[in-house]
Design goal:
D-Maltodextrin-Binding Protein, domain 2; 11 helices; 6-stranded mixed beta sheet; about 45% helix; alpha/beta
Amino acid sequence: MTPFTSRRDALRTLLAAGATGMGLPALAQPVDPTKVVRIVVPYPAGGTTDQLARTVAMHLRDSLGQNVIIDNKPGAGGTLGTDHVAKQPGDGLTLLFGNSGPNATASLMRKLPYDIVKDFRPLSGVVRVPLILAVAADSPHKSVGEFVAWAKSQGTALNYGSTGIGGSSHLANEYFNELAGTRFQHIPYQGGAPLLTALGSGQVQMAFVTGLDGAGMVQAGKIRYLAVASPRRTDVLPGLAAIAEDVPGFSAVVWFGMLAPHSVPTAQADKLAGAIAAVVQKPEVRKFFIDRNVEPWGSTPQELARTIESELAQWGPIVRKANITT
């Protein structure tokens, strides 16, 4: 049995338990309103994950009737803070604002100090963020089809940039090479800011970015969005074609959501999940997300678990073929 197979089977067991309520604790005391709920963000303050988490935390205070704070614990690509939450007691007072990296794809590239399935209980997906294929503002290419034809004519002479080895932008580019038949070479950068600078100056010819990170450079006339990596066109990025229209089957969507230590009892987890999903549906919260080019989600625990399972299936072959390790 491979590690991927064991993770997949464990996820299916978790989905079945969530649907039936069997095999997990059925009774729980409500979260103590006199105590603080701490949401761990495994990245520095001010970044994409932090901005999204703080918006949820602000509204979650009212839904739970208790204080909710953000605790930034960055390091090791988000896995340091994630591991911290995995080792917390199941009292519902320490939660994780996770995402595709430390809660799914990182496990495909290296051994982690936690198990993404056994150590966590998915609560609710908060937003889905389609990656965007971006080029320099002065790029002559106006469609993905035109861009791919040009790239193929250049062989290995072109470069793509990423926010670091093993990150979502790296995986998306390798997937693009695979499906489009291009041969872009990888240049990793230390985060979004240097990547966008390199793209705007022509050091790399393409990159996958998020709408949150790329907006400033688009407004400054340094880069241009070519197409969105959602399976089809999306209202959160109006006017952009989907990459899949020219590269059939291509999709690269990052999720952000809330998870708890696996030992949190079912009733308590359900209460937290419902409160989080309700926050995401608030008109002012939805507007905040849509204005930043991200799609409000507010999923059930089972939907988030299925998303993690599908990511392992999608990215596993790409990681293995490109021999990506971190």
